[in-house]
Specification:
Low-confidence stretches: none
Strand order of the largest sheet: 5-4-8-6-7
Order of helices and strands: EEEEEHEHEHE
Shape: globular
Mean pLDDT: 92
Distance between the termini: 48 Å
Strand content: 25-35%
């Protein structure tokens, strides 16, 4: 029996490193929001300390079933108050470091789920 991987039209996170991620092999330096249905835009924050409720309210407008928050070089959780717009819509939020968020996004997008990866991409010296 020959096995073949499923074909997905969703954009994928093909690589990551200190200060960057690659979306469909295009290197992006800076925080970014990527979605399985073609959503893609800069996320205006370069460190965890710059995040606020407005960043998560922006994600609530996308209508995804799940938000994967990549919190940067290490795992850090957003304040519960920031998640209120997402919780009101019953949108799931999972928090992990950005490297893990890239991998998780690819798996879920490949399954055909409407998933958004909100990736905090910090400079190599950022914390």
């Amino acid at each position: 029996m020959k096995l073949q991987p499923d074909k997905s039209d969703a954009q994928s996170l093909t690589a990551h490193g200190p200060g960057w991620v690659a979306i469909n092999n295009e290197k992006v330096e800076g925080s970014v929001v990527v979605g399985s249905r073609g959503e893609r835009f800069e996320w205006n924050c370069s460190s965890f300390d710059q995040l606020g409720a407005e960043h998560f309210a922006q994600l609530a407008t996308l209508g995804a079933e799940l938000i994967i928050f990549g919190s940067g070089n290490r795992i850090r959780f957003p304040q519960p108050a920031w998640l209120k717009p997402l919780m009101a819509q019953r949108t799931g939020v999972e928090t992990m470091d950005t490297a893990a968020a890239c991998r998780t996004y690819n798996i879920l997008a490949g399954e055909g789920r409407h998933v958004i990866a909100a990736l905090l991409v910090e400079s190599p010296t950022g914390g």
